[in-house]
């Protein structure tokens, strides 16, 4: 409750900078308004006689765009060419009302909209749907260099022409249009990048350049933007394996991890646009966006099993009020020194070709072709070292830190004698190391044809109708091998090899020094034999999902008066025909590699949408949105394939709650995906009230309040259902074992359920402080606050786990001052505890309870507006000022069982931009 009151105290001053530049490909019926808005934000905004630049320009352009948009949207804009206000585009998006970001590897990557994780939202680039680098649909926004983007608009309410929309919202990333500029623009940006954590510092750089020009009497435009990033990210990891039952009805941790990691992010990006408009009849635009992102992670540290290993709990332990052992001593613990390497190579390639033909004064024909392709290579390399003396065993004392966020450990052994260290199976895990090679390929192609006609039919001023065809194939592969010094049959310390490294300071988790070496060099040296591993879990990570969507739509624009009050908006409907299929593997005992299987299904959905904006008082608007929204199922839930076994003795009688069918043992049973899944569906309603105003100095501001409600018609969760195993490969049971007499059994798989709601209130204010006192001209506050509640049960009826991505309370506050070329900005982003998805053991996804976060950043700029240095800007930016850790817990009670604790440090960017 204290946390909630603190958020409420800043609700009217919490922050986010916003501007909406509508998508060219999404709503062609308003091209003229979009071109004017883009041109307006492309150069200095003029409000009366006041020339506004930098932060204030972005804020005021956002206010103008939000005021004129018929949908309920939130957005951000670059302060200038190549200068979005944050190092990461996800950080910028996370300041918008009702939105926040989940950090991964110390950086904001996934965006949560209105309490849903990234898989429930859609992402487009210049109006075109994007492929994703992850296992599912959620886009990782750090793949998109912020320097290459001019703006981002988030559609909270869809319209019928918004193809590829999400259930939570749609994020449209925008690059500039060269013919929106009146003259050539060249912009250069360079920043020094330093990450500091504790006493450790690492440095990198970020460089970008943009060239915009017009030729042939402003009928042909060119934009080329380049970006390069080399950014370090050192950090520390303190984690437990998990918790399980201990003696005397207690709960005890199963083991622990202590790591130092050294991450580095290298990204090169290109954005290019060719725009040709020889006359008023034809306009052609070709877009290309390319990003290559290499992420390296070198981990040095140690793991040790306690009750899930060889450890023996000693008497005299301490138990808290929840029954969790918080302080204990252990004997016979076998620590495993780890040298790991986890590189990720991501490549994104997106191309779009748009042509508009003005056939008559009333008719326009639009065609759009696009392709978005992603390739990811991800390696997880583990190598193990043990202490040779005493058979590798030692003592260990553990105690919960007073902060309640992690455990502290003291081990009895030393790890600073290279002659006492050996390469070996130090933990009795059946291998001397492990290697996983993952691959993700996502290929998405679209073609869109639509016609727009201006109308004068009562309240309707235009109609837009057409069809969009999307063909998408996403596949994941996983190859896994044990690393064996011989053949991995020797057991714990059964086979050893000399330690190949040196001793370095560790100074973390109670360990002073530790042996280190390069895991990649050891793998390449030939020390290990690679023994390919076949397992049902590995087979389940190899799949392909293909989708073909045909979307027919019609949308009518509304511009009329309700009495003396202007009323604008749109109404329309989409009809989506869907064919989805999957290739994967089915496994059973004796067939761990699996047998190929193919499944396919067809169905359709209809999605109506209405948006209305009523100006019931001067510059005061009431907005209403009503729509049926859809989120396609997760890719890994759509995969075909299953793991089959038989229940032969003591089989519980099973009744399918949907069909009423009852099954008694013995019977076949399985677990797997479900290619026949239908989407998450919801009836959504939005209402907002917004008041816009100008101060005597010409500064623009607004305040707004919004309410939303989503009533789920269908959602997805796992449960047991009756299943016919006829025609599938089945295991041969041992002789004498009872065998199922029929083919009807049960399978645990994702299925569609019904029911549940999510609702929320969002407050927003953009306040130039000269509204209160004229001498405060240049000072301002921008802020947001949201309170979201959900009755959705994502794990099925009767379960209590909250929806992934949902923080009940989210607030943002930005304070700024800008005048005479000098500007300063401070921002604070806060979210309450939530369930989130992250990579866990072996890089597989898992859902965890993430602790509340407060992330702060600040920026100081000075721009030369006259003289020989005109066009030059100097700036300093600091991110994660308070070194906010990433903490997660085994359950929602953070005082009981902390599970993950990561420190990432503070990042400082210092540099300049020059525009001429």
From TrEMBL:
**Domain spans labelled TonB-dependent receptor plug:** 66-169
UniProt source species: Aquilutibacter rugosus
Q: What is this protein called?
A: TonB-dependent receptor
Q: Name one Pfam family in it.
A: Plug
Q: Write down the SUPFAM superfamilies for this protein, in alphabetical order.
A: Porins (SSF56935)
Keywords (alphabetical) are:
Cell outer membrane, Membrane, Receptor, Signal
Lineage runs: Bacteria, Pseudomonadati, Pseudomonadota, Gammaproteobacteria, Lysobacterales
Q: Where is the signal peptide?
A: 1-25
Q: Where in the cell is it found?
A: Cell outer membrane
Gene3D superfamilies found in the cross-reference section: TonB-dependent receptor, beta-barrel domain, TonB-dependent receptor, plug domain
What's the superkingdom here? Bacteria
